[in-house]
Amino acid sequence: MRYEGDIYRPPSEAYSYILQCTVGCSHNKCTFCGMYKNKKYRVRELKEILADIRMAKLYYGHTEKVFLADGDALAMDSADLIVILDELRRQFPGLKHVGIYTSPDSILKKTPEELKALKEHGLNMAYLGVETGDEALLKEIRKGVTYEEMVTAGRKIREAGIPLSVTLILGLAGRTPQAVDHAIKSAQICNEIDPDYIAALTIMPVAGTVLYKQIQQGKFEVPGPFEILHELRLIIQNLEVSGCEFRSNHASNYLAIKGRLPGDKEKILSLIDEIIKRNNADYLRPEYMRRL
Fold first, then answer.
1. Contact 71, 37 (CB under 8 A)
2. Sign of CA dihedral 256, 262, 263, 269
3. Is-cis flag, bond preceding 194, omega within 30?
């Protein structure tokens, strides 16, 4: 397969065929993110993408899962995305899942009709980096949207019938009193969006990013493992979603959790409370095993 630069995908797409439709991220300004800094955003030629699908058919023969990369493939023209989705179905008749990274801005630019058409042609998972529900923190990390715009984007995807997975970043407010607002308001924004999945990641400084420079300048202090656990607990405690799978199984996290909310809420809180009570780092993922 042909790929330009490093390729990133959600943990749940580990066994998917990754099809690079765009190169880089259309926003690429978030202070904490170093994933696409060595790429200039562009949309790949449609004929190249279609050729890649046919090559994948020869290589894989059969696949049930596909992930459309890079950082914001939904920013592509909807008509081209539909051509890609249709070709994937032609080449892989047993295809059950097509996922895509998206940004709030690219969702807001699509009409409801466009999103529904993408769903009808096989797009059945969107991954949205919400990061935080704290309005001030959204601005600080240069996310490019307001709280209300983020909620509107998330709801728009859901109303189109496309399952939605949102990510939150633990420790994003640093070791400050703002961490409490970050946790509570992150739960609040998820409650308003009411996604199908919520994934928690933990902040990991990346060299070359704005956040990394802030740490070097003493302007940002990374919280410790048990401070992160308290933040995680506060988020889960305040989540009031209608039916959602919560995961913290990303390699950046100190504690891997998976449960169905609201049903497993008390069980998850009890587990976190027990680990906090024991105050023993042996129950947590060691630093050398954490990855982005």
1. no
2. positive
3. no
